[in-house]
Amino acid sequence: MSATVQDTSEKQAATTTTMLEASGLRKTVAVGFFRRKVEILKGVDLVVREGETFGLLGPNGAGKTTTLKVALGFMRPTAGTVRLGVGRQELGYLPENPYFYDYLSGAEFLALCDRLFAFDAAGRTERVTALLRDVGLERAANVHLRKYSKGMLQRIGIAQALINDPRLVLLDEPMTGLDPVGRIEVKEIIMRLRQRGKTVLFNSHILADVAELCTRIAIMKDGRVAWTGEVADALGSNGHVRDLESFFMEVVRA
Amino acid sequence: MRKVLAVAVNTFRETIRDRILGVIILFALAMIVASLWLASISLGQEGRMMKDFGLVAVSAFGLVVAVFVAASLVRKEVEKRTVFVIFSKPVSRSEFIWGKFVGFGATMLVVVGGMTLFLFAVTWAVARSPSAAILVAGLLVYVQLLVVMAVTVFFSTFSSAVLASVLGICVYVAGQLSHNVLSLTQVSHSEALKAVTRGVFYVIPNLSAVDLRASVVGEGAARWAGVAAWTAYLGAYVVIALLAASWSFGRKEF
C-alpha cells in the first residue's frame, strides 16, 4: 500500500465547493519542562468537499485532533495552510471528550450557545426544544449538566454543534463513551445531516460506523495523511471485498 | 456586545450557583460574633470600631473571593476545554475575556453589596450609628476589587492559577501602600530614586486613594473630587488590564 495521498474523485473535486483544505500542514509543539520540540503534523494534505460525510481515521497520536484544532484556529500552523470553506456562523464543532458547564441545565446550555451566534431571542425556546428532542434529551432538559452521564454529555455536545444549522459539522470522536443505543442515535443524527446535504467530518475508531456512514475517508499515520479516497475503494470491488478494519491495518502498518 | 453579554450572564449564573454566596453568610456570622465582642470591650466606641473592623472584613473577604475566582475564571475554561465549544462559535477571545469579567464583576457586586448592606444593618442594630458613608465605602471597596480582578485575570492568561492569585494579592498590597512609598521616597535626595518611585507609583494602581475607611470612622473628611478622579483612574486601569489580558489570551494556543 502506497503511503502517498491518493484521490480517485478528481472530477468531482472540480465541480464542488471545498469545505476544508489543508496543504502541507505542519505543527510543532514544545512539551515538558525543557520545552522539547515535537512535530505532531508533518505535512498534512487534505480536502473535504461540500456534501461529503468524511471520516478522518488513524491510530491514537496520528494527528487527527490536532488537524481539527489547527483548522479551527485553536492552534497556529508551524508551516503550510489550512482553510475552511465556511465562517464560524456556518460551522458546528463537537470537541473530543466534551466537558460543559456543570451548573447549567441542558436547555440553558443550548440557549447560551444560541446567544453566542447572536440569533434573535424569538424562537430560541423552540430551537432548543427541537434540538433536545433530536438528540433524545428532552426529558433531561432541566437537569444540570454535572448530573449527565457521558453518553448524555456526548449528545448535548452534538446538539450544541447543530444549534446554528451549520453547513460544515466537525465531530471529534462523536461515538466515544456511548452505549449501543447512544451510538445508533448518533449515527442516525449523522445520517440525517447527510440527507440534508450537510458536510460532516468526523474522527472515529469504530471503523464499522465509518464504513456505514462515510462517503470518503482519510487515514492518518504519524502526522501525515497516509491514504485518502472513497470508502468503496477502500473496501474493494469486483468481488474482492474486504472490511475497513483490514484495509486500515494495511495502511497503518505499511 | 450581545455575545459579551451572553458570556457574562453565563459566568454570573455559574459563579452564583457555585455556592459563592456562602461568603456572605460566613461574613454575616463573623460580623455578628465580632460585633458582640467589640461591643463588650470598646467603652462607648462600638459604632466606630464596628465600622472600621467591618470595612476591613468586607475588603478581606472580597479580596479572597475576587483573587481566587478571577485566577481560575479563564484558566478553568481552558483546562476543562469549554473554550473549544465557545471559540468554535463566532466569539472572539476579547469578547470572551470581557464577558467573563463583566459576569464575575456582577457576582462580586452581589457579594460585596451583600456584605456592605449587612455591615450597615449591624452597625444600625448594635451601635445605633448607621452611616450612609459605609455604603459609599463599600462601593469603593468594590472598585478596588475590580482592579485586582482585572489584573489577576491578566496574570492568569499566561501563568498558573496559584501564581496569578499570588500576583493579584501582591498588586492589592502594593496598591494599598503605593501612596506611602511615594511620600517616603520624596524625602530622598536622589533624583533618580524619586523618578523611579514616581514611575512605580503610576504603574501600580493606587488603591488607597479610594479607601474611605478613615472618613467613615470620623478620622478625616473625604475629598470627594479627588475620590471621583481616582475612581476614574482605576476604571481606566481596569480597561487597560483587560485589553492586555485580551491580547495575551489571543496569542494562546489550546
3D structure, described in words:
The complex is a heterodimer of chains A (254) and B (254). With 254 residues, chain A is α/β, with parallel strands linked by helices. Chain A folds into two domains: 164 residues, P-loop containing nucleotide triphosphate hydrolases (Rossmann fold), CATH 3.40.50; 65 residues, no CATH class. Helix content of chain A is 34%, strand content 26%. Chain A contains nine helices and nine strands. In chain A, strand 6, helix 6 and strand 7 form a beta-alpha-beta unit. In chain A, helix 3 packs across helix 4. Chain B has 254 residues and is an all-alpha fold. Chain B has one domain. Helix content of chain B is 81%, strand content 0%. Chain B is built from eleven helices and no strands. In chain B, helix 7 crosses helix 8. Chain B starts with a helix and ends with a helix. Classes of the chains: A alpha/beta (254), B mainly alpha (254). At the A-B interface, strand 5, helix 3 and helix 5 of A face helix 1 and helix 5 of B.
Number of E-type strands of chain B: 0
User: Any idea of the CATH class of the largest domain in chain A?
Assistant: Alpha Beta
What integer is the average pLDDT of chain B? 87
Low-confidence stretches of chain B: none
Strand order of the largest sheet of chain A: 5-6-7-3-8-9
How would you sum up the global shape of chain B? Answer: globular
The largest chain-to-chain contact, stated as pair and per-chain residue counts, equals:
A-B, 34 and 25 residues
Give the overall silhouette of chain A: globular
Radius of gyration of chain A: 19 Å
CATH architecture of the largest domain in chain A: 3-Layer(aba) Sandwich
Distance between the termini of chain B: 25 Å
Mean pLDDT of chain A: 87
Main features:
heterodimer, A: 254 residues, 2 domains, 6-stranded mixed β-sheet, B: 254 residues, mainly alpha, 11 helices, 0% strand
